[in-house]
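pasting for ref
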Amino acid sequence: MSEFDGCEVFPEKKEECGLIGIYGDPEAVQKAYFGLHSLQHRGQEAAGIASSNGELIQCYKGMGTVSRVFRRGSGVLEKLTNPIAIGHVRYSTTGASKAANSQPMLAEYSRGQVAVAHNGNLINASLLRDEYEAYGSIFKSTNDTEIIVHLLAKPTHQSKPDPLGHVVNHLQGAYSLIFMFADHLQAARDPYGIRPLCVGRTDKGGYVVASESCAIDAIGGEFIREVEPGEIVRLDEKGLHSRFFVTPGSVTPAHCIFEHVYFAKQNSHFFGENVHTLRKKFGHRLAREYPVEADVVIPVPDSGTAAAVGYAEESGIPFDMGFVRSHYVGRTFISPEQKLRELAVKLKLAVIHEVVKGKRVVVVDDSIVRGTTTRGKIRTLREAGAKELHMRVSCPPIRFPCYYGVDFPTKEELLANNRSLDEIKDFLEVDSVGYLSLEGMLDCATLPNDHYCTACWAGKYPIPIDIALNKFAMEHYQMTMFEDFSTAHE
């Protein structure tokens, strides 16, 4: 077993997590690297790749973006070169942003080595950890993924006919998982299908499994299908095999439609449809629900662009780009002075004055969370001479936190919590505001309305939440234990 360090802190834009696994391709590691680049929008806190020659797994991971962890000329990818590989880009939804929580997570147990990559959030993570620690298990990280490794290593679980299927049945919440064993890969998706996962073929005759189909496209592969909710796919020398750890059809899917609203790349295809196409539909419906007389429609790039195109097409108002986004400035710019923070926002999203000056402007964004950043953007448009500003949002008001892998703030921090549309309008300092209705959003989608999770808008959680969850809950527990230990030995 070998693991390189390669850790470097680089605060960046935060989204979710992205996974890729490749089996039976001599270029597996290189393709995993390019696949992670295409999934970089899902997380920029950490990146890693594990590979196997069929007998030994090795892993390299670190803090930062893919290009920073795997620096050109470092020779790391060459050292990892093997026909089996998995990769991960991380944004923390459980556990702090630190090297110990980066993935893939590599471990060794009674049946050999295993490396795990995870996207999602386990709502029973703290309960499982408490149980296993009570019986003597020692944890090296504070994320929920390590709990899965301890479940896998438990002797009574190993004796089951399908150990992995038995293990994932213990998990509650959202999870798309890729497991690398020395000679094969297995990938699993939770019974509700909350997070996306798909499978395809590589151009060298191997197989690929990834969070989004854009990663398959990026490596020149061929999309086959999505991994079904409650399904485990195995990739080995005999090909692709499928089995279910729950009875197919016994659970109503709860796909996270916020993946389509914001997270996913526009050329990806999952939950039965293309992301860009659905976002345009959102824009068309939004224009019908909240029409306005205006001179130009502009998006907040990048995830608001497709909806703005749809709004412009439906309304007949000309579309233009009023903002220029810099891809080289991180969202988490930290400065003690408000003036410098405001300058950083303007650098990130600069206004094209000629597009908005003296005009009635419709501004289309995918979503609004706290609202402070949106208000800053509106102020820059005012300063540029916009005559009127009409805010349009291509999803309903976010009123509730997510516990399934989206790092929304607490309910009290959400702009739409306990605020009317008029109050939101006043807070954002716009002339009018309109959100796409929940019914309108669901009607745009291909699948039945009850096949989507709408908890962040409607407050109805498909998997019951018994306690208020905190992404740093296990972090706090570890710190408390350390403080108690220190006090006891003073």
